Amino acid sequence: MTAATPMEMRDRRFGWMLTAPGLALLAAVVLFPILWAGTTSFFDYTLIMPGYDNFAGFGNYAKAAGDGEFLHAAWITVLFVLAVVSIQFAIGLLVALMLNDTERGKGVYYLILLCPLLINPVVVGLMWRMILHPTLGIVNWLLSTVGIEPVNWLGAPDMAFWTVVLVDIWHQVSFMVVLLLAGLSSLPAEPYEAARVDGASALQRFWHITLPMMKPVIAITLLIRMIFAIKTYDIIYIMTRGGPGTATDLISYFIYRRAFVSLDLGEACAMAAMLLIVIAGMTALLWRTMRTAQDD
Amino acid sequence: MKRILLASLSGLALAAAAQAEEVNILMEAVPDTTYIQQLLPEFEEETGIKVNLEVVNYAEMHTKLVPQLVARSGSYSAIVVDFYWVGEFYKAGWMQPLDDRIEADGFDTSVYVPAMMDLVGQVEGTTYMLPFYNYAMGLLYRTDLLEDEANKAAYLEATGSELKAPETWDEYLRQVAFFTKDGQYGVVNQGLRPDPIAMEWSNYLFASGGSFMDEGWHATFNSPEGVAALETYIKNLNDYGPVGAASFSFDEAFNVFSQGQAYSYITYNFFRAAVDDPSSSAVVGKAEIMGVPGQTPEEGGSLNGAWGWAIPKSSPNPDAAWKFLQWVESPEIAKKRALLGGSPTRLDVFDDEEVIAKYPQTVALKELLLGSHNFPTFTYTPQFVEVLGRELSLAVAGEKTAQEALDTAAAEFDEMAAKDGRQK
Amino acid sequence: MASIELNSVSRIYGSGASAVHAVKGIDLKIEDGEFMIFLGPSGCGKSTTLRMIAGLEPVSGGDLLIDGARVNDVDPAERDLAIVFQNYALYPHMTVRANMAFGLKLRGLPRSEIDTRIADVARVLSVEPLLNRRPAQLSGGQRQRVALGRALVREPRAFLLDEPLSNLDAKLRSVMRTELVKLHRKLGTTMVHVTHDQVEAMTMGTRICIMRGGEIVQVGRPQEVYRNPADTFVAGFLATPPMNLFPGRLEARGDSLVLVAEGAEIPVPAATAPGWGGHAGREVIIGLRPEHLAEAPEGPAPAALQLSVETVEALGPETILNLRLGRNGPEIAARLPADGDWEAGQPVTLHADTARLHLFDPATTRSIPRGAAHAL
Q: Are B40 and B348 in contact (CB under 8 A)?
């Protein structure tokens, strides 16, 4: 490397000057809260007695790890994320594939599909609570017209879990569709023609051409959706409050309550930190699998 | 030193406020808030102080309040405090004592229903709040069904007794079973966790002769009475109520009742007014409210509940806030609020002839309030509601027995009470 | 090994008034083992025709036959043809080896057979060191070879090449031209090659099929098409610079014919063109290739033309002169040896080889044949 000329130095300094406000803002907005939460997680910090007087070490972490309710919420969250992301991915990919082949009226389909995504999750929750009301809701009424007994959508533990899953799918599936469709429509057409001449059936083209070429898009989509799913909070708050029993007690709602109902910020921060570590680990893992899978 | 600093700070804030003379209050979107909104012009004309009510949903209130209360100088001049935040706010020292102001201005607090003052007035002998409105729970029941001759005959045949408004808890439960027929439910419950189920079940606990704790703050609600109350609750919800009640919040449960699908519903007394609102009710004039009946006709089983006015330590202009509190809780305005449909906390309003003439149920509501029981209020009330709601919901979902669920909740209650230094 | 036959094959996009006729009912028979070139400007329908043969475009009308069997509705996979695309269309996520193996795997060939074929083809195309790389790690020329290799390993009945050389630089293009010709000679498989480059057309194919506006203008061996362009379009399309075309009049003067154009009179001995006699007295388009102008008289019936030099393009081995015929005549090009020394504005006398003159009917643009006596 040769020494920088005065002009290069000026350029570099100017570059720093331009980026400094942005970096500072980023540090203030992103880094500071994370560091604050990280620090708080090591203290006996409650909103009633705010202060860093009692250092707790890993006490908050140990307490959280030994809290059966917390572990249960974590487990429910794992199930929820798996169910939501996998079903949304399957539906999303199917719809995206169909839309990708559509030539006319794509804009209209887009608009219709995007509608749920544009609705505030609180409204989504309220809307579905009304629609699924066991005695006054339209769904059970429709079912009754064909002789099906009223379904206890939110009142029975197993059913409530799947109801929340379904509502989340309804709400968020278009996110998958939009991202996957963007990926599909940016794929080059030539490999498909080559594959057709090479003798690949539609299914074989999907398996050997579409899926591998979509891998990076799929990885990003799954990752973003997974992180969003882990953070699911509004729908639970509106629709079930984690009930019946603890059937839908997702971890974000759990941590929220620990912070704002129990006012135990120290422990809530410890839980959030554990969640952050898990998410970061999952991100790294998924990233690596996707990259190695591509090298087959 | 710190105090001087605080004082000078609030002095500064006061000086700033003196120019603007504005009072900011965070309030919940409920009928009693709208009545105040209607009366506010009177206050503004009288004092020249502008009052800004920030009206939000209950769910947002606590989260919005806490940061302002923790701050040295918050944005709220006065606040409203739900009874189950009282312990927490007191412990954190977020409210200003009002006794000096009460004494100086000769404000009469003896007119309040004593249970109200206990709940949202005084803590440990110091007055921090003025009771705002009560939301004690009562039993909404269908008078038209009770008066129906066919029902009367059938009930007499089935039970050997006369069909009338229930005087005891057992009589009520027999009616619940009796009215569950022909696509109609005997009762609709609000089984959503945490507060709807916890609050509703508290009535069952009191009505069954149980209590939350003894004098020394040791849990007693896992007693045989408590277990019986929970088993009754589960039976009502599963056998005599609509499908899905385990996930109902109060609005959904009220819908079922107001559509005429259920005989009874234990709920907040402010729903009594909504029963007679033709835009939201199909049972106008066909339902009445009463205290939840207890073990004997003399005992009540209702759960008390109320909101209180307070001035936070972080208030930027406590003097203006106090002016507002004095006005809003004055006999004239309290009466005007009641006439608009508000839920009183003052005995003089309960006994006011004009109010009774307009709302005959006021008499029953006073009875209800006098016979009601308080929920344990301490630092960890919200957390306890959370735990109780969770355990009750687990029992309703059939994942725990009533005894197991209550034992777990009781153990956690004892732990919290001990941590709060309450247990003796 | 396959022959390919097109009987009034057409391709229509859309329908009704907005329908676009991309290919308008063409007839062509490509013999087994032929190297057929589809030549034409872009939009002439040559690629569409190729894609119809491949099965990537449906046939709107007519019959497409491979080895005598109608394949209009046969899936591309079943046609057993291989195609090399302009952009190579390699599978970006597969290694070179996997790219080549893909079609064979789908056809269920045994692993050992696949390996042998890939090894053979890789050797022929010298891509052995690239087998484990991905397309993104290859240069344009390497990708081209891999695309070709992917077609070769298939051992198909025919190869379809859709402008495969157009993305290569000039040097590589000429190398690949030769290699493709050699390959064809070695394999003897039918090849159909689409191009807009007349050099490729002239040098590679056994026959050229020139297309324009969805129709076939002329089909023939390269030299045949070069010598006897069917119309002014073909005349103006093949070779660079193309044939000079300018308006004139054919007049009979005794037993001689004279072409009268602005700035020149060109006598043509009637005996060399008996077919033209009947056209005496008519307006014609005169066609004269730049290479048939020389400083010294050439051929049996040269004619001197008085020209002035407009611009000089010295290309090294030869020089292209752009000249003005007479004082105000048409501008024409001449291809001359490089040893001359010309300057712009300089008057010059060049001799046209009238035995190689072409005449075209201005109304139809078709060639007016010289007639049977034309023998050179």
A: no
